[in-house]
Request: fold
Amino acid sequence: MDAPGFTASLVAGGVAGVSVDLILFPLDTIKTRLQSPQGFNKAGGFRGIYAGVPSAAVGSFPNGKGVDIPSAQKPSCCIFSHL
Reply:
């Protein structure tokens, strides 16, 4: 089986980053509200736990996963092909 190409790695990494944000962002919001000194309900309860997810998801695609995986994969395949 051939190794995935640069574009496939880019898309797969970006989708992985966005998926993580969509799953963990609301859980982190709930955790922060549970730790609030004013209490869970006064801090907002379950209202708006997805507020801010779109900007976090859009930022996570190029920030780490979408660029990191292909850029790490490309040099290693080029280096090892010359050995």
In short: The longest helix spans residues 6-34.
